[in-house]
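If it is no trouble, might I ask you for a protein's amino acid sequence along with its backbone structure tokens?
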Amino acid sequence: MIRSRDNERLKLVRKLHDRRWREKLGLFFVEGEDAVAAATAEPVDVLRAGEDVDPELLAQVATAAHPPRVVAVYRGADLPAWEERPAALALWRVADPGNVGTLIRTADAFGAAVLLSAGCADPTSPKALRASAGSIWRVPLGRWPGDRPSRAQRVALAAHEGATLSEVRFDEPVLFLLGAERDGLPLDVERDVSARIPIRSAESLNVAAAGAIALYEWSRR
């Protein structure tokens, strides 16, 4: 059993807190029994409290609010490869990992894919993984604009412009464009139509809520 915080397996998990190390090593870690059970790939390493490592030491390398009973390391290459689906969410500089993870979970619920631009939060960060609740293993992730389907209808979700979303006629495949939390979607981002979600009093919707509503409207057609 590991009883030293200087153990190399614990050092690796600490390194993987940092996005730069996740990208350099091609690895990420998940925390908790449910997260490990959701994985569809074999882990590189598994650390179990009380079996492989002292529980206090495992808690020190974890990020969850409550110390997990298990932490596992996985290869980023084992996540789903990019594939086109009838609908996708394209995220423009969505920087909050909780929003990115929630949008991945929403895409999973509707059988959609997700595209991430430069400046988006890392979907394999601990906070994003918790928000995705295992959906990271089922949703194809691509790069925007690099993996954008050339024939997809591009529907930009805007707070105060364009047709009402319920009035837009969707083609397939459809790409819903979602802007950054603070600045929204720049006007120079190419689109086929702009659409808005009517709201009564708030200035705007959270980007994760907007993505969920867009996919729901699409699924009803």
In short: The mean pLDDT is 94.
